[in-house]
Write a structure and sequence with these properties.
The chain is of the alpha/beta class. The protein has three domains: 55 residues; 54 residues; 186 residues, Nucleotidyltransferase, domain 5. The protein has twelve helices and five strands. The protein has a five-stranded mixed beta sheet, with helices on both faces. Helix 9 links the parallel strand 4 and strand 5.
């Protein structure tokens, strides 16, 4: 039986070539030597010619060069600069997400080089560019204001809190629905799995505040948040707190209402409100409370028949409150690392 030499490793092929040539030089017939290895009869004569010209070293394995790259190293770096930190609309496309087809089109337009979709995939892997789920960012977002908050305003707030012996909390609200999209599950190909759940839609809202040391406060409510309700929440939040509190939050209409400002002033310095830059929810570690809730809590296991969404959310939030290390982990996300520095 003849063996296909292409199935052998480079090391095995090299060893066979060298042993075969040595056996012929020691007096064995080439046809008998190659038959012993189960390889094609004519192969050994090529090895003998190569060894005659270059010696045994010429029989060593060499790394295959393959087809040469169409793009130079400089061009590959340029492709990476096109993609990283930008989106296709900045290059004239009407779609905001990178695809291999768009990358191939851009390379053809700018470099006059045609690459297949498969080749583009290999190129992106070589450039350490991977498919990822993007984060949404509002057009109204102000990078300069965000930078000032991180570099100047929040460090100054920390110093003031230290001088006054105040605690810094981050506060946020969120809505939770019983019909939120389910997580993925496994099933037979072509047959979408069915998960039995209540057909009665429920929704509740929740408000919470987190502290970098692991303190956690929450309240669950129904209906939209207004200034009167927010004042009630602030009273509940401050109950039993002996130290002053600096509360960091967004500019929700209920947060910036005149009636709320008057209430805060009436407390004589017991509470201060400090507002994040607009359209920058990623600066608030309390956002990760809701991410955790949706991934590990309500949306992870569908509601059972007649189960209360409010009771489920309260149980989930109570579990977070009982786990200070988990609360502290919300402050270690890359987007809020400025708090820990």
């Amino acid at each position: 039986m003849t063996i296909d030499g292409r199935t052998l490793s480079h090391e095995a092929s090299e060893a066979i070539r060298k042993m075969a040539v040595r056996r012929v030089r020691e007096g064995e017939r080439p046809s008998e030597v190659i038959r012993a290895y189960g390889l094609c009869r004519t192969t050994i004569y090529k090895w003998l010619r190569v060894a005659k010209r270059g010696g045994e070293a010429a029989l060593a394995s060499r790394k295959g060069t393959g087809r040469p790259d169409k793009l130079s190293a400089r061009q590959k770096r340029e492709v990476r600069r096109w993609i990283c930190g930008k989106d296709p609309r900045q290059h004239g496309f009407d779609f905001g997400l990178w695809t291999r087809k768009i990358v191939a089109t851009l390379i053809q337009q700018k470099m006059k080089i045609r690459l297949s979709i498969t080749s583009v995939g290999r190129l992106l892997a070589e450039l350490n560019i991977t498919p990822q789920k993007p984060l949404r960012r509002a057009y109204e977002r102000d990078p300069a204001a965000i930078d000032r908050w991180k570099r100047e305003q929040y460090p100054a707030l920390q110093k003031r809190a230290g001088r006054r012996g105040a605690d810094i909390f981050f506060l946020d609200e969120a809505g939770i629905r019983s019909d939120a999209p389910l997580q993925r599950t496994w099933g037979a190909r072509g047959r979408t799995p069915v998960v039995a759940t209540s057909g009665r839609r429920q929704s509740v809202n929740a408000i919470s505040a987190v502290n970098r040391l692991g303190a956690f406060w929450y309240n669950v409510y129904e209906g939209r948040l207004n200034k009167e309700q927010f004042i009630l929440f602030l009273k509940g939040f401050l109950r039993y707190r002996r130290r002053p509190v600096f509360l960091v939050l967004d500019r929700h209409p209920a947060h910036i209402a005149r009636q709320v400002a008057e209430f805060v002033q009436s407390l004589g310095g017991r509470l201060e409100l400090h507002f994040l830059p607009g359209y920058a929810p990623d600066l608030n570690p309390d956002e990760f409370v809701w991410n955790h809730l949706r991934q590990k809590g309500v949306s992870k296991t569908p509601l059972r028949e007649n189960e209360s969404l409010r009771a489920r959310v309260e149980a989930d939030l109570e579990a977070i409150a009982a786990n200070p290390p988990l609360v502290r982990s919300f402050f270690r996300a890359p987007s809020v690392d400025y708090i820990m520095n």
